[in-house]
Amino acid sequence: MSTLNVCVEGMGVWSPLAGDFEALKAMLAGAPTEAPPARPTASTLPANERRRAPESVLLAVEVAGQAVAMSGYDAAELPCVFSSAYGDQLISDYMCATLASAPAELSPTRFHNSVHNAPAGYWTIATGCHATSSAISAGRASLGAGLLEAATLCAAEERPVLLVCSDIKGNGPLGDMSGTKSSFGIALVLSPAATSRTVAQLELHLVPHANHALRPAPATGAWYETNPIAASAWPLMQNLAKGEGECTLAAAETLALRVVLETSA
Q1: How confident is the model over 88-108, as pLDDT tens digits?
Q2: Are strands 2-14 and 133-136 parallel, antiparallel or unpaired?
Q3: Is the per-residue pLDDT at 127 higher than 70?
Q4: pLDDT value at position 163?
Q5: Tens digit of each residue's pLDDT (9 = 90 or more) over 153-207
Q6: Which of 60, 63, 246, 256 could be bridged to 212 by S-S, CB 3.0 to 4.6 A?
Q7: In sequence order, what DSSP letters do the residues of 175-191 get, joined into one string?
């Protein structure tokens, strides 16, 4: 078993019930919260880009902006890892339907926004970031895979790294397949060592061939079960909100991360 140690210096969250990490903490504490706008604000993007960008981009940029603002780092200097289980399901559904019925009418703009690294592209252009960026997918293990990728990069390069994981509501046959009924995003800024801005420390234990199911648990009706990233992130979000605890995240079919969290002193 291998271990990685990283620190959390910024967090961002967006869900239909909580528009940022403070709202999430209030919700977990049982306090009343105000629902966020129907579409993420994504204020990091220029106004013209916000109007044209699809929801998948707005969601990823929104949580990324929150996490970087909390961390105090310059977004232009942060390597970033973007992870999504299914990418932009709305555009994928549109493209499949259009190619089947009227392929000559396919929108070049929508095709441009359909690629899996579109959110990373919008983010790096808007922030002027020339550091390395990547976009990965591992189905329902996408959060664990993204955290493993970002933590490894953070430790290897000995520099802070931005992790963004998000999925939007599905549509059509793809939505039925994915079971994604709502949008959710989470972002973390990780650093290799504690600083004055550190809010939590993560000890990541790599567990090969872990018996950790990638299929969702039996439904309980909870809001986070309507999105694969949210379902994976729920135990970690609760631990981050209270400042302690541990959970296990699937990172691949036969790989998992046991995440032990402690509040920074």
Answers
A1: 998 998 998 999 999 889 898
A2: unpaired
A3: yes
A4: 98
A5: 999 999 999 999 999 999 888 888 888 999 999 999 999 999 999 999 999 998 8
A6: 256
A7: HHHHT--S-EEEEEEEE
Amino acid occupying residue 66: Q
Residue at 122 is within a domain: yes
Q: And the tokens for 15? A: 């869900």
Question: Residue 210 domain-assigned?
Answer: no
Domain CATH number, residue 88: 3.40.47.10
Q: What is the mean pLDDT of residues 203-221?
A: 68
Position 233 in a domain: no
CA separation for the pair 7, 12 (Å, rounded): 15
For residues 247 and 21, give the distance between their C-alpha atoms in angstroms, rounded to a whole number: 19
Overall residue count recorded for the chain in this entry: 265
How much is the average pLDDT of 36-50?
92
Distance (Å, whole) CA 204 – CA 200: 13
Kind and range of the H or E run holding 71: helix 55-71
Residue of 90, 218, 205 whose CA lies nearest to 151: 205
Number of H helices, E strands in the chain: 9, 8
Distance between CA atoms of residues 140 and 185, nearest Å: 14
Per-residue CA distances from 209 to 97, 109, 142, 214 (Å): 38, 41, 17, 12
CA distances to 166, 168, 183 from 96, rounded to whole Å, are 22, 17, 21
| Number of domains the chain contains | 1
